[in-house]
Amino acid sequence: MYAVIGLNGHQYIVTEGDSITVDSLDVEEGKKLEIKEVLSIFDEKGESVTVGAPYLTKASVVCDVVAHQKGDKIRITKFKRKNRYERTIGFRPQQTVLHIKKINA
Questions:
Q1: Full domain range(s) for residue 25
Q2: Per the confidence metrics, is the pTM higher than 0.85?
Q3: pLDDT the model gives residue 86
């Protein structure tokens, strides 16, 4: 069973047993998280599809918060020609790793 969930303005396709990396969430490690913003649910063979408007009312996805981590470094460079001006800044986004336990349809 597949589900499309909405989380922090992003959409993710998940199945039971998947681990996904999302933008930072304010939840402690080891806690359970229930996501009620389920956009659609598909069965294994794609025979039945349930689509919400915009969300499904009775559907939810239960997941565990595995870890909080930093993402890959992103380099930002500013440059102005003819002025000998160049500046480089690095940024590492905060991320949360979720393990999908169950999809409730």
A1: 2-104
A2: no
A3: 97
Number of domains in the chain: 1
Contact 102, 31 (CB under 8 A): no
Reduce the secondary structure of the chain to three states and give it as a string. Answer: CEEEEEECCEEEEEECCCEEEEECCCCCCCCEEEECCEEEEECCCCCCEEECCCCCCCCEEEEEEEEEEECCCEEEEEEECCCCEEEEEEECCEEEEEEEEEEEC
Per-residue pLDDT reduced to its tens digit, 5-33: 999 999 999 999 999 999 999 999 999 99
- Per DSSP bridges, beta strands 94-104 and 10-15 are unpaired
From 53, 18, 24, select the one nearest 39 (Cα to Cα): 53
Phi, psi of 10 (to 5 degrees): -120, 155
Give the span between the Cα atoms of 35 and 9, in whole angstroms.
13
